């Protein structure tokens, strides 16, 4: 059997702590199901800048390109917070996406029955929520042509091509076919030329998927309806900026950023998997970070890069079992409810997985 190579990039802050637990779960999956796995650690973000001066060293990118999948913790450190700096840890993310040819970010948001009370929204609103944000990663305003005109004016541009929209739309419709067969495309077509191209292109792609229902929502309405009627959504298809914002909003539904995994995919099997939260330097080293988003990212890695759907489901079921048993980290613990440490939560998931 072929040995899978997984590049592990812990990064900064709590990334180091949560990735340690995710890697522990990954090796437990290998042991239980007889999958040969080899993990190799690379430097990224602030940790890489401290040792090499670069947020994404060439050796790290080479390691990732040679791997079957990449597991990333988080990047960012207060020491490098100056947005005017020529080099910042966050540049590693754009470098990885570009260097690995990743154009689609998948962010599932599923409310575990045991955590319906963890959301600030009413339990009856969020109970049963199971949606997937499909965000385009390589276009839009993040990849425009920013310029500063003196001290009084700055300009950012938004650009999309039909081909960029087509490939992300095809992926969204294909994923919807394996879910509840509904795509909600989010844009601002009443104002933006890019959004009008987006809507026209998505409608053309939709004709190739007659079994999938398509609806359009303006981004402001989508933001509102995610809170008012979140159970109505299945797959949300969005451009880069809107997807960045809306996918973070889904953390309100599930109760914590510490529960949201993500996958960034390209045209092949290689993908980048990471929790959506940041490096959280204020709690780093205290053993209170929630590792479940990183662990659930392992499930996405197994499903999308290794083609191991059964093993991915086993990880998700182990997480669900631990939550159903009442275990909580500090971010999701209720008033007076004891919280387990980052490491303990990882151990509990491994125990549930190995039963």
User: What structural class is derived from the secondary structure elements?
Assistant: alpha/beta
CATH superfamily of the largest domain: Isopropylmalate Dehydrogenase
Taken in chain order, the helices and strands follow as EHEHHEHEHEEEHEHEHEHEEHHH
Shape: globular
CATH topology of the largest domain: Isopropylmalate Dehydrogenase
Radius of gyration: 20 Å
Distance between the first and last residues' Cα: 24 Å
Number of domains: 2
**Share in β-strands:** 15-25%
Strand order of the largest sheet: 2-1-3-12-11-4-5-10-8-9
Count all strands and give the number: 12
Please work out how many helical segments DSSP would assign. Answer: 12
Low-pLDDT residue spans: none
* Major sheet characteristics: 10 strands, mixed
Helix content: 40-55%
Whole-number average pLDDT? Answer: 95
Write the CATH architecture name of the largest domain: 3-Layer(aba) Sandwich
Task: Describe the overall structure.
Helix 6 packs across helix 7 and helix 10 (292-304) packs antiparallel against helix 11 (309-324). The protein is globular, with a radius of gyration of 20 Å. The strands form two sheets. A ten-stranded mixed β-sheet has the order 2-1-3-12-11-4-5-10-8-9, sandwiched between helices. The protein is α/β, with parallel strands linked by helices and 355 residues long. The chain has helices at 14-33, 45-52, 58-65, 91-99, 123-126, 162-177, 193-206, 219-228, 240-254, 292-304, 309-324, 342-354; strands at 4-11, 37-41, 69-74, 104-110, 130-136, 147-149, 153-155, 182-187, 213-218, 235-238, 261-265, 271-275.
């Amino acid at each position: 059997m072929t040995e899978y190579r997984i590049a592990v990039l812990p990064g900064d802050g709590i990334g180091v702590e949560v990735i340690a637990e995710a890697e522990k779960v990954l090796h437990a999956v290998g042991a239980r199901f007889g999958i040969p796995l080899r993990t190799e650690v690379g430097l990224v973000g602030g940790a890489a800048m401290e040792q090499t001066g670069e947020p994404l060293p060439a050796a790290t990118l080479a390691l990732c390109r040679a791997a079957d999948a990449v597991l990333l913790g988080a990047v960012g450190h207060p020491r490098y917070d100056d947005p005017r700096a020529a080099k910042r840890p966050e540049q590693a993310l754009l470098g990885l996406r570009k260097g690995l040819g990743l154009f689609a970010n998948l962010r599932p948001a599923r409310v575990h029955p045991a955590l319906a009370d963890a959301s600030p929204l009413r339990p009856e609103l969020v109970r049963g929520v199971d949606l997937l944000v499909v965000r385009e990663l390589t276009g839009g305003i993040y990849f425009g042509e920013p310029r500063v005109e003196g001290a009084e004016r700055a300009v950012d541009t938004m650009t999309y091509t039909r081909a960029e929209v087509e490939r992300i739309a095809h992926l969204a419709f294909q994923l919807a076919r394996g879910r509840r067969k509904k795509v909600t495309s989010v844009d601002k077509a009443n104002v933006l030329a890019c959004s009008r191209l987006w809507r026209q292109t998505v409608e053309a792609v939709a004709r190739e998927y007659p079994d999938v229902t398509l609806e359009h929502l303006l981004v402001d309405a989508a933001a509102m309806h995610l809170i008012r009627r979140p159970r109505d959504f299945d797959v949300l298809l969005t451009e880069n900026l809107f997807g960045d914002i809306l996918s973070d909003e889904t953390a309100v539904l599930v109760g914590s950023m510490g529960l949201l995994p993500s996958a960034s995919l390209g045209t092949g099997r290689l993908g980048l998997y990471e929790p959506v939260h940041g490096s959280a330097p204020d709690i780093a080293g205290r053993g209170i970070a929630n590792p479940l988003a990183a662990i659930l990212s392992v499930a996405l890695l197994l499903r999308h890069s290794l083609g191991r759907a059964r093993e991915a489901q086993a990880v998700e079921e182990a997480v669900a079992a631990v939550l159903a048993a009442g275990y909580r980290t500090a971010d999701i613990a209720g008033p007076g409810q004891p919280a387990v440490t980052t490491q303990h939560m990882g151990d509990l998931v491994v125990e549930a997985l190995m039963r």
